[in-house]
Amino acid sequence: MPRLAELYFKTAVIFFIIGISIGLKMAISEDHTVIGAHAHCNLLGWVSMALFGGYYALNPKKAERRIAMIQYYVYTLGVAIMVPALYMMLEGNMAMEPLVAVSSLIVFAGVLLFAFVIFSPKDSVATPTPQPLR
How many percent of the chain have pLDDT more than 90? Predict the structure, then answer.
């Protein structure tokens, strides 16, 4: 499995643990005001990242591209900023709203980079030319 795919799966599991923790806190406290942060963490962190990892596992040549690793860092940065900022904003700290907005744009940039990777030609990574048997 490509390193990038494994990195995405590991990061997805971390966000899954965080998302479940938020859900447990809401259930125990019976206060569901942060449900948006819970949903974003699970959908953008767990589900989307697992899907990205699956794509890169099935397309190892694209996973080798530098743009794919840049996409990982941009997207992960956006989600890592968005989830706690959204959580705090939903808890009533409206000073977090600009951070939520900026992180949303970072996540969107990561999605656009992923779209670029998907729509780029399959053979965009140089492949060695097979040598004839001697």
Answer: 90
In terms of Cα–Cα distance, which of 115, 113, 106, 56 is closest to 78? 106
Convert the pLDDT of each residue in 85-113 to its tens digit. 999 999 999 999 999 999 999 999 999 99
Contacts of 120 (CB under 8 A, 6+ apart): 62, 65, 67
8 Å CB contact between 8 and 38: no
The pLDDT value recorded for residue 123 is 63
Tell me which DSSP letter residue 33 carries: T
Cα separation, 55 vs 68, whole angstroms: 11
Query: What pLDDT does residue 122 have?
Result: 74
Q: Report which secondary-structure segment, H or E, holds 78.
A: helix 66-90
Q: Write the CB contacts of 15 (distance below 8 Å, at least 6 apart in sequence).
A: 41, 42, 44, 45, 46, 49, 79, 83
Measured CA to CA, the distance from residue 60 to residue 64 in angstroms comes to 6
Instruction: State the Cα–Cα distance between residues 114 and 116, nearest whole angstrom.
Output: 5
